[in-house]
Amino acid sequence: MDALILSRIQFGANISFHILFPTITIALGWVLLYFRIRYNRSGEQRWMDAYMFWVKVFALSFALGVVSGITMSFQFGTNWPGFMEKVGNIAGPLLAYEIMTAFFLEAVFLGIMLFGASKVPRWLHTGATFLVAFGTTMSTFWIIVLNSWMHTPAGFELRDGVVFATNWWDIIFNPSMPYRLAHMLLASGLTVAFLIAGLSALRLLWGEKGHGVRTSFRTGVIMGAMLIPVQIFMGDLHGLNTLEHQPAKVAAMEGNWETGPNVPLVLFGIPNEETRSTDFEIGIPNGASIILKHKPSGVVPGLNDFVADDGTIQHPPVAPVFYSFRVMVGTGFAMLFLSWAGVWMLRKRGWEPGDLPKPYLLMMVPMALSGWVATLAGWYVTEIGRQPWLVTGVMTTKEAVADVPPVMVLSTLIGYLVVYALLIGAYISVLLYMARKAAKAEAIPNPRRPGEQPLPVPAE
Amino acid sequence: MEFLGYPADQWLPFTFAALMGLSILIYVCLDGFDLGVGVLVPLADEAEQDRMIASIGPFWDANETWLVLAIGLLLVAFPTAHGAILTALYLPVAIMLLGLILRGVAFEFRVKAPYKWKRAWTWAFFAGSLLTSLAQGYMLGLYIMGLISTPLTIGFALLCAVFLTVGYSFIGAAWLIGKAEGDLQSKAVNWCKGGVWGLILGIGAISLASPFVSTRIFDKWFTGPSLIYLAPLPIISGLLIVYIWSALRRLSVNPNKEIWGPFVAAMALFALSFLGMAYSFYPYVVPEQLTIYESASAPEALIIILVGTLFVLPTILAYTALSYYLFRGKATELRYD
User: Fold this and answer.
1) In this structure, is residue B2 part of a structural domain?
2) Cβ–Cβ of B301/A92 closer than 8 Å?
3) Which helix (H) or strand (E) holds A195?
4) C-alpha pair distances (Å), A450 with each of A211, A219, A445, A446
5) A108–B contact, CB cutoff 8 A
6) How many structural domains compose chain A?
7) Taking CB atoms and an 8 Å limit, are A63 and B105 in contact across chains?
8) Which of B91, B94, B100 sits opposite A67 (nearest CB)?
9) Range of the domain at A218
10) Which of B53, B56, B82, B317 to mutate against chain A (most A CBs within 10 Å)?
């Protein structure tokens, strides 16, 4: 294996591991602010209980996000020096603004948010929670701007092979940015909604009956049910935007080889790049044409358009994009079904999660990680779908890679993979342990700060 | 875009080199003490370990962000230098990153995982802190040697790895003198006494080695009048070390006075050494190969960043100060409520 493929695997592994944690903290910060404000206004202990459980998850996820993010900032230099040399004049300012407007804000106020509740006035603690949530969202904004610019570059000119900015407004609000940003923020919201619902379902199954867990469960399910239709709509808009700017990616997502009308929506199949066709195809006639062009006779681009006369392939590898897309969409529909079913059943049962049927709660438990699955799959679609380009039409991935001995990249890659596997294992087991501890501890009254009486446990 | 009569491609790279230098210095001082606390952890018992880690709890994350800013400024202002330096330091960077990952997560896992795993995570916290410090010292040493790997330069880099780790442990212990009470505080005074030799040797070795690696640096220091107006650097450093030594002696007798003395003096010492290094290497960002003027990004890109920096950096400093003010005084148990 050469340094290019090893560096790509390494970057892919790093960024996949990294995105798991910001995906949680971006939206969880706002959920914590919501819990905190509800508590400030009502004084009801259940909101504080929910806050106290989830702030621990936040702290843990945040730490994992920070350390894996530091890794990312070094990878540009160690493995992809060509990237900054060519597009540094644009990528540089965007990354600098991310660090300056987001990283410090979240890092400093996180300390106050986590450990300052007894040291600062309530408004300052609530304010710190807001600033942390705001910081994570600012960070999302800047990094999505840069990522989108790499997909749909605008507002620049090339001089002697180096990119120079000509219009910062066009760079920031590049064609795919609004769609990608909305899609990612919603993805984070859904990840957190299902994490909260799933882990709370597990706590309910383990016999926890407190107000905190029931409030958390309701919040998660309702949040999921509200966000998922918006996300499906947003995903569709994003797809249409991709069709306009990166048709090869959409062709790979659809598994469509020949450009033409009446293209079916392939539900399942095995893309075969040897024969340039999709084996065992099961599809809905005219489906892709209707979704992408809103009429059966709509012409949908095919992969064969992206092969040069000398046979060079100029489209992304089909199979990973094709499968990832189906995993993402499938997970999305599972979210839609389970969250709406949940809200419907909760309504019938007086919004009492404890009365929900056990099989439903059991199904919600693995959904705790559904957001991770869908988010990763979605990122694989868009990032693998960009290949062979690193910055569409400006530079290929191959041009950016460092001339580092492959064996060195391989050894660091193995190091990262081992550490990441251990950490994901530790993270999930600690989430389970915290849930278990919460479920067990509930019989024993918690020691609280003086002046704060625990609410009596209601008879159930 | 002239400024004080200098054209934009002169004053912008200089300004950014200064900003990057400032970030590195703040990083070394701030993360230095919390890395040092991590290195010292095995010397304490469990209750003391909890207290030590609690003393850095609200700060470590923001401290590490200065590293991200420093490397970010290198990346955005001097992209070719960023690539050259980081590919030359590929392995130590990877080791440092693994170290940073280990200690950052261990911090959380230690208290959140089941109790039976706590010792293991404490070790991970120690190992991560140690690896990070050693890797940073190694990189510093290799940078001084012009990023060239020969047995001799690697030997020097290994020596620097040890010295920087001792230096970090020293400011870690000095931090604990201010933050801890009772037995732990007396222990910290002793750790400082044990570490002060490493501090002297480290700064001495780096100061002596740089001029002999490059005749350019030698000439900058030892020809003409520069010797005279640079003289305050070594003289003040010497006085600071004398002060640290005497303050530590007084602290062993009365642990309530001058508790921040050694810490502040050590910070000043780090700052002076850093100034000396900056003077030696200027205008090079990759030693003897690439100057800040050759590797700077386009002035249009730099000015965009600078405008934001002028607003944001004072704000960052202000709320960082707020955080240190809120969590002032002796370290207490870390609680979420």
Assistant:
1) no
2) yes
3) helix A177-205
4) 21, 29, 14, 12
5) yes
6) 1
7) yes
8) B100
9) 3-226+321-379+410-441
10) B82
Cβ distance B68 to A73 less than 8 Å, yes or no, reads yes
Query: Does the CB of A404 have a partner CB in chain B at under 8 Å?
Result: yes
- Residue of A59, A81, A88 with shortest CB distance to B108: A59
ipTM of predicted assembly, 2 dp:
0.83
Q: List the beta bridge partners of residue A279.
A: A270
Please report, rounded to a whole number, the percentage of residues in chain A having pLDDT higher than 70. Answer: 96
Please indicate, yes or no, if residue A423 is contained in any of the structural domains: yes
Domain count, chain B: 1
Cβ–Cβ gap A96/B309 under 8 Å: yes
Domain membership of residue B11 (yes or no) is no
- pLDDT for B129-168, tens place per residue? 999 999 999 998 888 888 888 898 898 889 889 988 998 9
8 Å CB contact of B86 and A77: yes
Q: What is the pLDDT of residue A442?
A: 63
Residue B337 lies inside a defined structural domain of this protein: no
In a domain, A403, yes or no: no
> Does the beta-carbon distance from B82 to A84 stay under 8 Å?
yes
Q: Domain range for residue B283?
A: 17-326
Q: Of B302, B39, B319, B28, which is closest to residue B169 (Cα–Cα)?
A: B39
Is the CB of B304 less than 8 angstroms away from the CB of A70? Answer: no
Residue A403 has pLDDT above 80, yes or no: no
Task: Quote the mean pLDDT of chain B.
Answer: 86
Using an 8 Å Cβ cutoff, are A81 and B83 in contact?
Answer: yes
Rounded Cα distance between B75 and A45, Å, is: 48
Q: Is A414 on the interface with B (CB under 8 A)?
A: no
What does pLDDT average to over chain A?
87
Q: Is residue B331 part of a domain?
A: no
Q: What is the pLDDT of residue A449?
A: 42
Q: Could you say which of A56, A67, A78 has the minimum Cβ distance to residue B336?
A: A56
Which of these, A432, A412, A423, A433, lies nearest to A63 by C-alpha position?
Answer: A423
Say how far apart CA B235 and CA B237 lie, in whole Å: 5
